[in-house]
Amino acid sequence: MSVTKLKSVDVVVVGSGVVGSIMSMELASAGMSVVCLERGKQFDINTDFQKPNVYDELKFDRHSDIFQNLARDTITFRNNDSQTALPMREMGAFKPGEMVGGTAAHWGGNARRFLPHDFEMRSRIAERYGQSFIPGDCNLQDWGVTWDEIEPYYDQFEEIFGVGGKAGNLDGEIQAGGNPHEGPRSREYPNPPTRRTHEGALFAEAVSSLGYVPFQGPTAAMTQDYRNLYRVQMLECARGGFCSSHVCAQGAKANPLTSVLPALTRLPNFELRPLCNVLRVNTDSTGMKATGVTYIDARGNEVEQPADIVILGAYCFSNTRLLLLSGIGTPYDPLTGKGVVGRNYSYQQGGSVHVFFDDREFNPFIGGGQVNTSIDEFNGDLIDRGPLGFIGGAYVNTSTSGATPIKGKRVPPGTPRWGGEWKKAVAQYYRRNMTISIHASCLSYQHNYLDLDPTYKDAYGLPLLRMTFDWNDNELRMMKYLNERCIEIGRALNGSRLGGTNKGTHFGITGYQSTHNVGGAVMGTDPSTSAVNKYLQSWDVSNLFVVGGSAFPQNPANGPTETIGMLACWAADAIKDYVRNPVSLV
Amino acid sequence: MTLSDNPIGASYIYLLEPEIRFLEAAVEHLIPTDELGPGARDAGVVVYIDRTLASTWGVHGRQYRGGPWLAGTPQQGYQSRFTPQEVYRIAIREINQHCKAGFDRPFAQLAGDRQLHLIEQLEKDEIAMPSLSSKFFFDLLWRNTEEGYFADPLYGGNRDKVGWKLLGFPGVPSGQYRHLVTSHEPYFAEPVSVLDIQTGKVAVDAEGFPKHVIIKRNGNGER
Ligand SMILES: Cc1cc2nc3c(=O)[nH]c(=O)nc-3n(C[C@H](O)[C@H](O)[C@H](O)COP(=O)(O)OP(=O)(O)OC[C@H]3O[C@@H](n4cnc5c(N)ncnc54)[C@H](O)[C@@H]3O)c2cc1C
Asked: Are B182 and B198 in the same domain?
């Protein structure tokens, strides 16, 4: 096949999600010529996600064509090295997207910063409990950045995504109404917090009686009409449910389509190319400079786009896979522990306690946009982990997310799975339950990693990414503890019955859990344990930046996207320095 | 095809008559008609299954289809070499063969309690089928039954929004929700579907939200 070689640009960005859109915007605004390549289709936010069609649970939750097309490429999965990895044939535990706007176009909007502790987890845990407290097979690592360095970039991201909340810690001063355990903020949230639902009020009362401090969890669904940093207008959330997994018809949920692309696509030095599937990053003969990327365009032509700087913002999976397919960085070998690409893949732990009432009725369908009431006492390292014997934590909340009828029903334990008894139970309890959710951290381990599959290939004949992953004792101990605490909260809610769901002892690829996949190209200070430096710059190829959840050395409890967006702002700023002096930034 | 018995006036794209008969009987056990309202059969769940099998999903149009096919662990999910269309076609034939061998009749013509017992056996993987696992088929059937009963009537099931009425789910949201998000009062409205709005049965306001008709409930909380 003949390859078309295009004119060189300053920057080529792979992926148009949170990372791709924000970094394109920052760099194009700074005057660079930027081309963004996206494998997915382009949609028009003003016409293509209209009411009432967006209020279709079946389509958006199960059969959506904005999810990754697994017929073209997927991942393979196994729990451990002794098994044969098999393809994830249908969407299950997670739902990576593919469209202009990325996965983020259908994300849930839970926008939390990580804690200062999270960025220096290895040092702080070792200091408090001693090195031997860290499980021997655990690759716990610091990120190489400190809170003070990155706080301004959290602030910047929140101004882009219009995050609503109430500060709990302003420059070290604890504020009533906010999360007292959050890292110090330099200023208030750009938007006010959500208002408290019926479930939220009950939860707040119950947790207060147990000595915890409730607060409204931050959200990236607008809590008022808002014009963001890029002068884009977003509307207040209408609380119509159909939120996570759906594109918002109201345009109220911050995401690349609503918050960035309207401004970005107006810049003359920016070009967006949908339906372009990037196959690899090209390097020069030294292997130390990227020369651009090669992709297959919409018509099936192989195209080379030369660029001075290459940015991968293609989600955890594609970021890692493109490095492996391009031969950049040493692939991780779980037997020797050497190599970095694919190392420290991690995910999100979690579970929930359901409280069933016979004397209360809620409106579970009114909500969405992350109206949630939370506590943070179990997060980070607040409670002494010594006697508990695990590392990590969780935020716990009740969220009124807009329970939809296929997936949003809960029945008390012991209810049959189908039949007349089941039918009675869903009728009785759809409106008479609330959920206490545990959103927990997950450490990285030597035997949890990503590499290229030896057998299965994508539509272009390239090997699929292989995931080897399972839960570990540390996380299972943590979940047992958190579950017990949440049962106490459940009891304090005085329901008639309690139930619960947890992820089991082995990770399974079926049943939606979260699209919080991280690691594979982690950031750090040591090239033998990280693929990119603290500025997300490849240790091996200095004009290549690999940005996203792929850079998380392990997964803290809070959702990833706020930090992914922060890292996009942080790396874009570093690239502006790099352009002035194009060498390694560290 | 002329259906000999078609009280809901349904039309079918993919399913064959023996399959329709099988499914009408089977889904009615999964979600039975009772004092709370119609079961899956009258809700049009078989029509839904037909349409979903005829859709992209039925041929796994966006699912990974490449071999080799190995059995895999439960954690590895769907590993069948068959598409959902093929699974239904193969499984129903083989279950009917099992029924004819044991009881001289296809599933749909057996007594209700025998059908129920067979469904329980399918779920427990206790029926030896030549080509696939009976539990695998059961899980797919239950998944699709629940979808058909509760998805928007747009897809052929949930006729007359019976699934939503069962739950007290109002369907397409009202523009008033933003004012009700803090309310402790239960909110009941006649459900509105996407189908209702597309076909002009329910009008929408300037923002595109339907106007809900509120259901008043008596002092006992009954409707
Ligand atoms: C249902 C759901 C709910 C979620 N809720 C939350 C939440 O409440 N809070 C939270 O913090 N996070 C949430 N997330 C996660 C969130 O969506 C992701 O963290 C976020 O989108 C990551 O941004 P990104 O830019 O790294 O990747 P993406 O948004 O995935 O963008 C990457 C883009 O790269 C494209 N791409 C990939 N490979 C290639 C290639 N080879 N060539 C060209 N283009 C390519 C993809 O098509 C995609 O558009 C949720 C996710 C889902 C699915």
From this structure: yes
Residue A110 DSSP one-character state:
B
For residue B1, pLDDT over 80 is answered with: no
Taking the C-alpha atoms of residue A383 and residue A397, their distance in angstroms, rounded to an integer, is 18
Inside any domain, residue B45: yes
Q: Is A516 a catalytic residue?
A: yes
Same-domain pairing of B155 and B173:
no
Question: Two tokens at B18?
Answer: 């023996």
Residue B1 lies in a domain: no
Give the residue numbers spanning the domain of B125: 7-165
B123 and B186 part of one domain: no
SS3 A61: helix
Tens of pLDDT, residue by residue over A439-462, are 999 999 999 999 999 999 999 999
Q: What is the ipTM of this complex?
A: 0.96
Tell me if chain B has a CB within 8 Å of the CB of A445. Answer: no
Task: Note whether B96 and B188 are same-domain residues.
Answer: no
Q: Tell me whether residue A367 is in a domain.
A: yes
Nearest-atom number in ligand 1 for the CA of A101 is: 49
Please check whether residue B175 touches A, CB under 8 A: yes
Whether residue B28 lies within 8 A of chain A, CB to CB, comes out as: no
Q: Which of A106, A246, A439, A516 is catalytic?
A: A516
The residue range of the domain holding A392 is 196-217+349-440+471-506
Q: Work out how many domains chain A is built from and give that number.
A: 1
Atom of ligand 1 nearest to the CA of A40: 47
In angstroms, the Cα distances linking A247 to A64, A336, A517, B41 are 11, 44, 20, 32
CB spacing of B167 vs A405 below 8 angstroms: yes
Instruction: Tell me whether strands A518-520 and A343-346 are parallel, antiparallel or unpaired.
Output: antiparallel
Residue type, A124: R
DSSP class per residue in B53-112? HHSTGGGTTTS---S------GGG----SS-HHHHHHHHHHHHHHHHHHHHSS-GGGS-H
SS3 of residue B196 by DSSP: helix
B153 and B178 within one domain: no
Q: Which of A78, A249, A427 sits opposite B167 (nearest CB)?
A: A427
Taking residues B88-98, report their average pLDDT. Answer: 98
Residues with CB under 6 A from ligand 1: A 14-20, 37-40, 95-99, 102-104, 106-110, 244-245, 277-278, 313-315, 318, 515, 548-549, 559-562, 564
pLDDT in tens, A515-573: 999 999 999 999 999 999 999 999 999 999 999 999 999 999 999 999 999 999 999 99
What CATH number did the domain enclosing A427 receive? Answer: 3.30.410
- Is pTM beyond 0.90? Reply is yes
User: Is A508 an 8 Å CB contact of chain B?
Assistant: yes
Does B59 map to a domain? yes
Residue A315, phi-psi category: left (phi > 0), alpha (psi -120 to 50), beta (remainder): left
Number of alpha carbons in the 13 Å side-chain half-sphere of residue A88: 26
Which of A54, A55, A61 has the highest number of chain B CBs within 10 A, making it the mutation to test binding with B?
A55
Amino acid at site A354? H
- Domains contained in chain B, number: 2
Distance A319 CA to ligand 1 centre (A): 11
- How far apart, in whole angstroms, are the C-alpha atoms of residue A442 and residue A445? 10
Query: Cis omega (within 30 of 0) on the bond before B68?
Result: yes
Q: How far B215 CA sits from the closest chain A CA (Å)?
A: 14
What is chain B's length? 223
Residue B158 and residue B51 share a domain: yes
- Phi-psi label, residue A570: left if phi above 0, alpha if psi -120 to 50, beta otherwise: alpha
The fraction of chain A above a pLDDT of 70, given in percent, is 100
